[in-house]
Specification:
329 residues, alpha+beta, Jelly Rolls, Arc Repressor Mutant, subunit A, 3 domains, eleven-stranded antiparallel β-sheet
Length: 329
């Protein structure tokens, strides 16, 4: 991952450097800001390659952005862009699009090589993520993606949780993550954009595949979110997702672990963290915090997974941590 911020540049030159090197060279846009505000400008971004796609996270104080014909000619991308607004917001306009605003928590989509103008909605500036997926890498119907003018995602209620979950999986995924998993997530995000634009039927094969990827991503997050509930079940999570229990089990059939095995593995993982991070916490409290229905069940499952009791695990980790502590060297 490549990261950069204006802290690396003299305050007098920060916006000029951002404008000429980062905005034009990396993002392919023209940036504008009043001269008297430039010395206080701050901008930071990260760029991570996901195969041929790119995931960008951008934070900046307020400034105006325009993607002009000259910018497009100098930095063509031919990519589908999916934007996630994480903070602040922006107002968009352009010759071919109706004016709209994107606020915190919203998503928008566009083709990379279409002109637009944007300005911040407030003094807090921008915080957003953008994934750029090359059009050539998107299996799709016969659709002209270069006609996708910037537009907010309309089906916020239906697709929003799936978009959020898939974006977060990409952010949290390590560089050593299985490339097929990352590819499935980028493909799902691209196809969510096509579904939202109305050019891909939600019942088509590609759409169903994208929805499976998104629902599986969200199902795992719901499991983690409700892991402390002893009554956590396929029925509970299926109800949260708005799908049948049978569909829930089908989602996990495509993975290496069933629903129940996934829940158990996550509970063991959380219990290991608690045993190590909170050495004075009673083991019974750890068990119930991780959703085990009884202390006996916790001991049985933990011993099967780790080959030792929770107490022995805690003692072994404490000895290991003391041996590696700088104070003891």
């Amino acid at each position: 991952m490549y990261t950069w911020s204006t802290d690396q540049v003299d305050p007098r030159d920060r916006f000029d450097y951002w404008r000429e090197v980062r905005a034009k060279g990396l993002f392919g846009v023209t940036a504008e800001l009043e001269p008297e505000q430039r010395q206080n400008f701050f901008g930071a971004f990260s760029l991570r390659k996901l195969g041929n796609a790119g995931l960008i996270e951008l934070r900046a104080s307020p400034y105006r952005v325009e993607r002009r014909a000259g910018d497009i000619a100098n930095a063509r991308s031919d990519s589908l862009c999916i934007y996630q607004q994480l903070g602040g917001g922006g107002w968009f306009s352009g010759a071919r699009l109706a004016e709209f605003s994107v606020r915190n928590g919203m998503f928008a989509t566009s083709h990379a090589d279409l002109p637009y103008r944007t300005a911040p909605l407030g003094a807090d500036g921008f915080h957003l993520r953008i994934i750029k997926v090359p059009v050539a890498d998107i299996p799709r119907p016969n659709v002209r993606l270069d006609e996708f003018v910037p537009k907010p995602v309309q089906a916020q209620g239906a697709l929003l949780p799936l978009l959020e979950s898939c974006f977060q999986d990409l952010v949290e995924g390590s560089d050593s993550a299985v490339s097929s998993s990352l590819s499935a997530l980028t493909q799902a995000l691209a196809h969510f954009a096509l579904i939202d634009r109305g050019v891909m039927r939600s019942t088509s094969r590609l759409a169903r595949q994208a929805l499976r990827t998104g629902r599986l991503s969200l199902a795992r997050r719901l499991i983690e979110r409700h892991l402390s509930r002893a009554a956590l079940s396929p029925t509970l999570v299926a109800d949260m997702l708005g799908i049948s229990v049978r569909h829930m089990h089908i989602l996990f059939e495509t993975t290496a672990m069933s629903f129940s095995h996934t829940v158990t593995a996550l509970r063991i993982e959380r219990s290991r963290r608690l045993l190590r991070a909170a050495p004075e916490q009673p083991i019974a409290e750890v068990a119930y915090a991780c959703g085990f229905e009884s202390l006996a069940t916790f001991y049985r499952v933990f011993n099967a997974a780790e080959g030792m009791t929770p107490g022995d695990y805690r003692a072994a980790r404490r000895t290991e941590d003391k041996a590696t502590s700088p104070a003891d060297r």
